[in-house]
Amino acid sequence: MASGADTLEVTPRQLRWTVRGLMLGLFCGILSGTVVAVALPRVVADLGGGQAAYTWVVSANLLASTVSIPVWGGLADRAGRRALTLLALAVFAAGSALCGAAPDVLTLVACRAVQGIGAGGVTAMAQVMLAAAAGPRERGRYNGHFALVMAAGTVAGPPVGGLLAEAPGLGWRWCFLIGLPFAAAAALALGRAPRLPAPARRGPVDLAGAVLVTGSAGLLVGWASAAGDGFAWLSWQSAALAGGGLVLAVLFARHAARAADPLVPVRLLAGRTVAAAGVACLAVGTAVFAAPVLLGQYFQLARGHSPAVAGLLTLPMVAGMLVATTVTGRLTAATGRWKRYLVLGCALLALGFALMGAGAGRAPLWVLVLAMLAGGAGAGLAAQPLLLAVQTAVPEARLGAASALVVFCRALGGTFGVSALGALLAARLTAHLDGGAGTEAAYTAAFGEVFAWAAPVGLLALACALLMRETPLR
């Protein structure tokens, strides 16, 4: 069992309850980000929203989750880890209940942000608690379980959401309420977990850094969501949002480099492995979070399927993720090696999106099945090696911040990926419709182009994976 400066001796029984509670919390947190993907057309129609609502119902959750992750990570290096995890679950449950009762789009977007703050805390604290309770080899095995749960939550969201949206007596509001029993079960399991002590570090959380990173990410996500649709790329609105976001990003980087205890430890990025892993996490996050949203809309709008059928058609991606994460976790724990699986995963990710781009234009369904299997397997293979690469490259005292950095980068990539690819989809759809294409043909062509544009993201992750130095797990 784990031991060290900021851990205590954890019995096997306590570790099992800890892992069970964290897995349940992770599942409901990740599920909340994708379960609404297929139900979006019905949600927006029922609440009277416009085209921008499609992006913001998803992006509000992802953005709030993303910017809250480093705050939770900073708190984890100062306060009791179990108490913080339970607090995150409570915030998530409150946000989920409010989403289920939202009367209009603006209220739903605001409540999705609350839900995202709780989900970000659950996601960050899961890695922090595991790092404090288990040794490096055990982390490799349990990270495989975590990656499996995250894969299931990410890609099972669309089929579950589609079924709920069409189920008699339920409807799309249950896409938000479904997380409540999982959150309650997670809290009960964590009640049997040990009280993991906080590290010796004290002092206030870097609130200035939180304000800067929130402002920067918010402006850039707003720009990526609306540019080309709400206003022209070359316009004063575009310049204001993008320029303001970049200025705040530079100010945040300078602040983090000078602060004694920054919110996001950018000093960790000085190492080649950590820096490459951060960029790779951005790329993998883009693929993992954007794929379910895009596929759910593609099967409905381009191929004419119902929400339930569209959700079920994404199951090949689920299968690829589940098998890959299971196998990778066992092999990593047995061999202590992770780089080979990361390289293969990034290559498959790029291949999967390339095949999706080629197959979107009315190719046989088996082509899309192969594409989703490859993309899902790639995401599953890459997920936990990226975390292990960072955790083995930093001192034990910085495990909390380093783990949160990985989750932050992955969520940030997902936030920008959903926003940017959604904006690209809207722009290409408008171009095809203006060019005289029919609605179905326009959607088919636009989705094919968006999937093709996502393929280089996988190649970027592959290049980063090749740059990392492998440190065998102890």
Give an overview of the whole structure.
With 474 residues, the protein is mainly α. Helix content is 77%, strand content 0%. The chain has one domain (12-205, 263-467): MFS general substrate transporter like domains (Growth Hormone, Chain: A). The chain is built from 17 helices and no strands. Helix 6 (136-166) runs antiparallel to helix 15 (365-391), helix 11 (272-301) packs antiparallel against helix 17 and helix 14 (339-359) packs antiparallel against helix 17.
Could you please say which CATH topology applies here?
A: Growth Hormone, Chain: A
What top-tier CATH class fits best? Mainly Alpha
Strand content: under 5%
Q: Architecture, according to CATH?
A: Up-down Bundle
Helical/strand content category = mainly alpha
CATH superfamily: MFS general substrate transporter like domains
Rg, Å, rounded = 21 Å
N-to-C SSE string, H for helix and E for strand: HHHHHHHHHHHHHHHHH
Biggest beta-sheet profile: none
* Portion in helices: over 70%
Number of spatially distinct domains = 1
**Distance N to C terminus:** 13 Å
Shape: globular
Number of helices: 17
Compute the average pLDDT.
80
Low-confidence stretches: 1-7
Could you tell me the number of beta strands? 0
Short summary:
This protein is an all-alpha fold and 474 residues long. It contains 17 helices and no strands.
